[in-house]
Inverse folding.
């Protein structure tokens, strides 16, 4: 009595079908297997990017290119004879209409640690023509490896020239700036679209409401240079103004705006408006475009624009920066 019958387990042994001591229970993972909800070997941990995750770089590869110098902070000389890709260029639209720009051909610029424009000189001798941001605030600022843009507003700029006192800029006005390192080389064929990546608020000379810039660009490249197509709008609360090159972004090869030295470009096209205020463009308004191709292989396209109304009316000014997309088939 007390002994197991033939075929019965000895005392302490598991019954047939029951797990042995230390064996996983039914449904439990085997030793070395991941627990339920744990990643499989080689899978990313929660919060890590997957194998196909592109991260935060722009789709056109807008991260720093070790073969192309990025923008840096500090004082930098503007030299019209510099090799493209070696020094930054500067374009400004000032609210005082001193005739400084748009493009500053010779002088210097100063960028702070966030690559925002602190000061610039539009002549060889800075003590004669340096203008600093002073008490102004830098609004609408943005930058990447090769371009920087923004607007001085709501304060007083300081000028070193004797005949230029403190230069007031109202909060709804602005000195718009565009800094960029010109492309050393650009494609020699193909049509590339460009999407807007940054802009300043459009301002009226004399103040008033500000507007939002929106648009796209396209460039037709050839061995002799490039033609720039633009289709853009400036939207104010009371009116919208649109300007586009012939052919727009669908056929930039028809554009009269072509690149020249340093892959810069400039030209004049016409704008239309939906209202006579704040700018009367019922008969068409001239738009002065000034810009350039920046970064490796024309990775960026930047423009300043100024729309001039009929008669002695106000002007509309602003900056737009675009990033290159893949070539069209």
């Amino acid at each position: 009595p007390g002994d197991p019958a033939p075929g019965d387990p000895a005392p302490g042994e598991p019954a047939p079908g029951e797990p042995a001591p230390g064996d996983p229970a039914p449904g439990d993972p085997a030793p070395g297997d991941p627990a339920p909800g744990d990643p499989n070997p080689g899978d990313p941990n929660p919060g890590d990017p997957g194998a196909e995750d592109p991260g935060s770089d722009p789709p056109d590869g807008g991260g720093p290119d070790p073969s192309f110098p990025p923008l840096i902070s500090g004082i930098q000389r503007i030299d019209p004879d510099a090799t493209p890709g070696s020094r930054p260029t500067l374009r400004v639209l000032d609210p005082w209409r001193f005739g400084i720009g748009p493009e500053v051909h010779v002088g210097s610029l100063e960028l702070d640690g966030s690559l925002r424009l602190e000061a610039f000189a539009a002549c060889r001798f800075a003590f004669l023509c340096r203008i600093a941001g002073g008490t102004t605030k830098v609004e609408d600022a943005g930058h990447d490896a090769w371009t920087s843009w923004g607007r001085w507003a709501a304060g007083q700029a300081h000028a070193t020239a004797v005949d230029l006192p403190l230069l007031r800029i109202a909060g709804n006005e602005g000195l718009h700036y565009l800094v960029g390192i010109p492309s050393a080389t650009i494609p020699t064929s193909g049509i590339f679209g460009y999407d807007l990546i940054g802009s300043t608020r459009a301002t009226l000379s004399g103040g008033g409401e500000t507007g939002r810039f929106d648009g796209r660009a396209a460039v037709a490249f050839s061995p002799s240079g490039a033609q720039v197509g633009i289709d853009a709008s400036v939207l104010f609360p009371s009116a919208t103004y649109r300007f586009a090159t012939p052919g727009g972004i669908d056929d930039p090869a028809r554009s009269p705006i072509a690149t020249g030295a340093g892959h810069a470009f400039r030209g004049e096209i016409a704008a239309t408006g939906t209202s006579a205020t704040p700018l009367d463009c019922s008969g068409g308004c001239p738009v002065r475009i000034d810009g350039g191709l920046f970064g490796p292989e024309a990775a960026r396209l930047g423009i300043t624009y100024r729309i001039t109304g009929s008669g002695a009316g106000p002007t509309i000014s602003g900056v737009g920066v675009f990033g290159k997309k893949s070539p069209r088939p």
